[in-house]
Automatic annotation (TrEMBL):
Belongs to the bacterial solute-binding protein 2 family. One of its GO terms (cellular component) is cell envelope. Coiled coil: none annotated. It holds the Pfam family Peripla_BP_4. The lineage of its organism: Bacteria, Pseudomonadati, Pseudomonadota, Betaproteobacteria, Burkholderiales. It comes from Caenimonas sedimenti. Residues 1-27 form the signal peptide. Residues 34-294 form the Periplasmic binding protein domain. The keyword Signal applies. This is ABC transporter substrate-binding protein. Keywords: Signal.
Length: 321
């Protein structure tokens, strides 16, 4: 039966309308994204989770979300579950940099593309993931170091620094330490006299700072914390020791979350280096591009600034996390 032009056009229109109707056999199948999150250890992480969930909703992507409570074995289990559920794409923020090759090879064998967000993995085989989107943590450490060198340029004598490191083995902890030391090593006055992990949490940051104060007391000139949550915990310890945070001890931290702005406005924190958690929209764009067969950059770096306490009050109303 020969369809005339008018009938053909009407038929095509009807079929494409049917494809838009939800629930019909022709309805566009929703992209399913499996996401394994580090945990809920900090204000930064909470903002990151919120960004991912709201961006998935806005993008019409079905999100299967799992919280690993900062345990690598839980992330590996979640990734295996996503593979078994045959999701379209897997994304995750690796709690630590090592130990991912086996499970990433399983995802590759199942032909499920993987996106790294926030933190990197140290796998030599970069074919195991499509892209890594997140901050340059080494540069964040350099920014912290450069701010301190500038602040101390007119002081005489040693600058004794205590360091609260992030989660042991995590990319931010490794790289923020590396970048900071790269800058301060140019001047022998700068000495890191104590360095220990506070696991990115307020509670641990306070506990370790208490130990630093007990061991070194008034010898401490500077605290360098790898994130604001540990710095905020340390501020409590400094006050309980009868010292003035940001005056008796200069405090530098990273993330620039709301709590950091509140501490700077209260005059208790000197500076916070920005590390944006708002990766949700970029992640959903990458997921859609992957599903559409479009090329995706191997490395997507988030642009970030630095906020000294002097600008905190002016900047705070503009902050999005
Ligand atoms: C950095 C992120 C870090 C934050 C911490 O991108 O991985 O983890 O700096 C968070 O606050 O816990």
């Amino acid at each position: 039966m020969k369809m005339n032009r008018r009938t053909l056009a009407a038929t095509l229109a009807a079929v494409s309308m049917a494809a838009m109707l939800p629930g019909t056999a022709l309805a566009q199948k929703k992209i399913v994204l499996g996401f394994s999150q580090v945990g809920a250890e900090s204000e930064w992480r909470t903002a990151n989770t919120e960004s991912i969930k709201s961006a998935a909703k806005d993008a019409g992507i079905e999100l299967k979300f799992s919280d690993a409570q900062q345990k690598q074995e839980n992330q590996i289990k979640a990734i295996r579950a996503f593979i078994a559920q045959k999701v379209d794409v897997i994304a995750f923020s690796p709690v630590v940099a090592s130990g991912w090759d086996t499970v990433l090879k399983e995802a590759k064998a199942a032909k499920i593309p993987v996106v790294l967000t926030d933190r990197a993995v140290d796998s030599k085989d970069t074919s195991l993931y499509v892209t890594f989107m997140g901050s340059d943590f080494t540069e964040e450490g350099r920014k912290a170091g450069r701010w301190l060198v500038e602040k101390m340029k007119d002081t005489k004598g040693d600058v004794n620094i205590v360091e609260l490191q992030g989660t042991v083995g995590s990319a931010p902890a490794i790289d923020r330490k590396k970048g900071f030391e790269e800058v301060i090593k140019a001047d022998p006055r700068f000495k890191i006299i104590r360095s220990q992990t506070g696991d990115f949490t307020r509670a641990k940051g306070k506990e370790v700072m208490e130990a630093f104060l007990k061991a070194e007391g008034k010898k401490i000139n500077v605290l360098y914390a790898h994130n604001d949550d540990m710095a905020i915990g340390a501020i409590q310890a400094i006050e309980e020791a009868g010292l003035k945070p940001a005056k008796d001890i200069t405090i530098i931290s990273i993330d620039a979350v709301k709590g950091a702005f509140e501490a700077m406005i209260a005059g208790k924190l000197n500076v916070s280096v920005e590390c944006s958690p708002l990766l949700g929209p970029q992640l959903m764009t990458a997921v859609k591009d992957i599903m559409a067969g479009k090329p995706v950059q191997k490395r997507i770096v988030t642009e970030e600034g630095i906020f000294p306490m002097e600008v905190a009050a002016k900047e705070f109303p503009k902050r999005k996390y």
